[in-house]
Design brief:
Elements lengths: L1 H4 L14 H16 L7 H4 L6 H64 L7 H42 L13 H28 L1
Length: 207
Amino acid sequence: MIHAHRPDLFMYESLVPTRHIDNLNHAFDVAENDLGIPRLLDAEDIDTAKPDEKSVLTYVASYYHTFARMKNEMKGGRRIANIMTQIMTVDKAKTNYETLASELLDWIKETIQKLNDRTFPNTPEGVQADLSTFKKYRTVEKPPRYNQKSDLLATFFNINSRLKELNQSVYIPAEGLTVQEVERAWEGMREYCFELRIRFREVGMLI
């Protein structure tokens, strides 16, 4: 029984089958010293033609209860370990969210600044150059950032879904990095670019 549940405590193969008393004493010592099972019997009480059944059953029952308790403790340990793993995963996701949010907001700010640095030269060549830059923003730079924003929102909602399952408080990002602030910044950039397109048309019509 000991070897079946705790094979690390002794090498079962090293026992000599004919040495009954030595084997029993070894098992009883391991049970008492390593598993905390009181030594209710002596080896001689077992190594007999008619051992006392009640005494043997009582002693064996103590093994059963000990191993059952160990099994429950192992399950509890695995459950706690699983919860801790989930919490660490959520913490990592929070860091990832705030990194993505910070990068995206910086890009939005830099993009607006870059698009705002325009003089709208009154020549076809100058307007064409500005239009090329604006087109690059719309077709090359903006699409991956839009995907980044979608990933950001998905990460945020995934974090709070996990926290709800763990009965934890709702995640509130650091100041300036909330979902609402990211959405407002994105919408502000979108509106600015819409106005910029209208301005390009006006300048183009004047030339």
